[in-house]
Amino acid sequence: MRQPIPPKAHHRPGAMNKIEARYAAYLEGLRLAGGIVAWRFEALKLKLANSTFYTPDFVVTFSDRIECHEVKGFWRDDARVKIKVAAQMFPEFAFVAVKREKKGWIYEEF
Fold first, then answer.
1. Contact 41, 24 (CB under 8 A)
2. CATH number of the domain that residue 72 is part of
3. Is residue 52 part of a domain?
4. Rounded Cα gap, residues 85 and 90, in angstroms
5. pLDDT at position 73, please?
């Protein structure tokens, strides 16, 4: 049986939800260990079309690349479309979906 999709929660810009806060703590651990150079929360706003924007949850800087990470507990169709469009329009960034599972963080590249 298919699980119902929860109602869309209202997001306050600049405020992390619980899973984003957990991922921020994980990224900070990576930064302190030297695995990444830096990370920023909601640091970019990319224009995809007239009145259509995409703001990645995290911009993660490595020594050789910059990645835009989108942290999700589940995906809505519109969010998946936006990250795919952003990946096509902005090839200078890598776009990565991040999901928390029992065995750790799972990554999907676009």
1. yes
2. 3.40.1350.10
3. yes
4. 9
5. 87
